[in-house]
Amino acid sequence: MKHSTRWLTAAGAVAAAGALVLTGCTAAGDTASTDDSSSGDLTPVTLQLQWVAQAQFAGYYAAVDQGYYEDEGLDVTIEEGGADIVPQDVLASGDVDYAISWVPKVLGSIEQGANITDVAQIFERSATTQISFKDKNITSPADLAGKNVGSWGYGNEWELFAGMQKDGVEVGDISLVQQAFDMNAFLAGDIDAAQAMTYNEYAQVLETINPDTGELYQPEDLNVIDWNEEGTAMLQDAIWANTDKLADDEAYADQTVKFIKASIKGWIYAAENPEDAATIVADAGSALPAGHQLWMTNEVSKLIFPSTNGVGLIDEAAWANTVDIAMNTKNETGGTIITTDPPETAYSNEYVQKALDELTAEGVDVLGTDWAPIDVTLTEGGE
Amino acid sequence: MTQTGSVSTAPARATTAARGRSWLGQGMPRRILVGALGVLALALLWELYIVVGPADGVIVGGLTVLPRASEMAMPHLWVMLERILEPVTGSSSAVPMWQAVLEASLFTLGIAAVGWLVGVTVGLALALLMQRFKLAESAILPWIILSQTVPLIALAPLVRRWGAQIEFGVFSWENWMSVALIASYLAFFPVSIGALKGLGSPDANHVDLMHCYAVGWWKTLWRLRLPASVGYLLPALRLAAASAVIGSVVAEVSIGLRGGIGRLIVEYAGAAGSDPGKPWAPIFGSVLVGLVAAGFVGLISLFLRRFRRGEVAA
Questions:
Q1: By the CB < 8 Å criterion, does B270 face chain A?
Q2: Could you say which of A44, A216, A345, B36 has the lowest number of CB atoms within 10 Å?
Q3: For B172, which residue in chain A has the nearest alpha carbon?
Q4: In B, which residues are within 8 Å of A25 by CB distance?
């Protein structure tokens, strides 16, 4: 009798553990399926991001939230990226309709055979900088020689290398340090000049207490090498579409114009309502602290507005500069991103121009000439 | 208490049972005590290093072999604990950190459990197949071993991509299933190897005896091989549980699945400088998931206790 009781207890315990596990699974199912909202006549469209939800993609989330995509007859599902997800590969293999990625990263994929087209250059300016503490006295790429220089690699290093080579510093002249997701190595002094996106890592430093003063680090404590100013900026976040489908599938081509149009409206909304946009992104599942999220929204808007020719229009000179750097800048192994000019189809202004024309006709200001960023006060930990 | 039951069986079994009882009766509190002491020693060691460790770490030949003892690199334990009790972010709707981590832990645990179940099922099936047919063993075994040399980061995006194309009827492939599949890919390996070894472990004369009785393969399996394999299987199941948890966390990061521990680790990493306690919370969460998974396998071994003659490390 006793024996079987024990068996029963054990069985009960296993069943309880099993139930626990099953609850976990249902939770898994629920969370994963929240984004497929079914709809009547809307065309389902999926967009692949290059990283997890954060304000870097605020415009797309805002366009979903504000119903701009719906107005165009699109039911947009946003797929988040991950450490090993390559958006242009996901797009080229036909799993999504559009993808967000950096131009230099995609140029390599195109040379490898990916048949995709930059249909809207959302970020006009580059957000990549190389930051260092004032006492290191690094104010130009030439000063990087002999220093510990941080980079994330994986295609994030080319603006840095191009800037250095312009100033006559070879990759061999610096000690290249692999940078992690955090800025600890920089704060601890292991990295003299660290790679930092204006909208993310730069703020991470400014959200940290300076042990010498007991206050947060201030912008005055840092020297920033901005690749836009050095002339080696490369084009970053762009909307990519499938080249073959653009040529053969008229519905897809039309849908591309609509998608770009609604996305631009989303970005205008995010620029004009940074607080709301930050909240939308947080509601979409980003766990970044609120202050940091707002900073990111504001900084990302600065990359877009004021726009020179209209949001998303690819500037031929900037494109040519990006291609030139991609062909002529050598990395630590002597390789370049691409060896020959990309095909004509690598970018097209056809669709974004249509979208801009429609927006202008509707009275939307697509230049944002009068737009001004807000002042975001950073706090410890970005709260 | 089980004396009457035990005495009726072979004397060897009685001594095992007696040993097992004392292990439970008096040994259990001691084991818990020793375990708690181990954790305490680790905590003390951590704090001690913060106090006596060099601020710049120990550098040998340009390589840092011991970490910096700075607040950023090694926050005090109470900083981490305090952080767990505080809300995740400063916004009014933010939940306390422990709640967020606990939810993520449950999520990851669920996926790991599915991965473990699939992995154990596949592993056992493969082991049975290989045990039954010598040809299958020589054909499959090398591939099983090769399978573990495929790097996870190469596999994860492929699995997600293939999965995205699966859809029949109401069933559509969710991203969490990709993660579970990757977890099972890691989990099946120790089970298939351990079970194969265990199934082949009975003495030749025992197997011969079964032959003499003219007992078929299935009955031999049930009466002889399976009971004999338990000692090999349990460590394999434990390894599989650990692999499933690690596989889930890594695959979550890899394909960017939201909701689990892997995602929290990535999202909180950026706060390492400005909020040093924060990135540690999901790490504790993954430890918790590992403990629960190991505890679950412990329950199974309690179930199979009467077959445990001594475990063999897989």
A1: yes
A2: B36
A3: A33
A4: 110-111, 113-114
A22 to chain B, minimum CA–CA distance in Å?
6
- pLDDT for residue A240: 97
Q: Which residues in A lie closer than 8 A to residue B21 (C-beta atoms)? A: none
User: Is A128-230 the same fold as A43-124+235-382?
Assistant: yes
Quick one: pLDDT at residue B7?
Answer: 39
Reference A266, options A98, A65, A85; nearest CA is A65
Condensed to tens digits (0 to 9), the pLDDT of residues A355-366 reads 999 999 999 999
H/E segment holding residue A18: helix A2-32
Q: Is the peptide bond before A211 cis (omega within 30 degrees of 0)?
A: no
Global pTM reads 0.81
Residue ranges of domains in chain A: 43-124+235-382, 128-230
Indicate the residue of A3, A31, A204 with minimum beta-carbon distance to B2. Answer: A3
- Mean pLDDT (chain A, rounded): 88
Q: Using the beta-carbon criterion (under 8 Å), do B279 and A182 form an inter-chain contact?
A: yes
Percent of chain A with pLDDT over 90: 73
pLDDT digits (tens, 9 = 90+) for B146-155: 988 888 778 8
Query: What amino acid is encoded at B32 in this protein?
Result: I
B269 touching A, CB under 8 A? yes
**Residue A307 corresponds to which tokens in the numbers above?**
């726009």
pLDDT value of position B130? 93
Domain A128-230 is of which CATH architecture?
3-Layer(aba) Sandwich (3.40)
Query: With contact defined as beta carbons under 8 Å apart, do A280 and A65 qualify?
Result: yes
| Domain A43-124+235-382 homologous superfamily, CATH | Periplasmic binding protein-like II (3.40.190.10)
Residue contact A183–B272, C-beta within 8 A: yes
User: What is the H or E stretch that residue A61 is in?
Assistant: helix A58-65
Preferred mutation among A25, A47, A88, A204 to probe B, highest tally of B CBs within 10 A:
A25
Has the ipTM of the complex gone over 0.85? no
| Residue A121 pLDDT > 50 | yes
pLDDT in tens, A198-255: 999 999 999 998 988 989 999 999 999 999 999 999 999 999 999 999 999 999 999 9
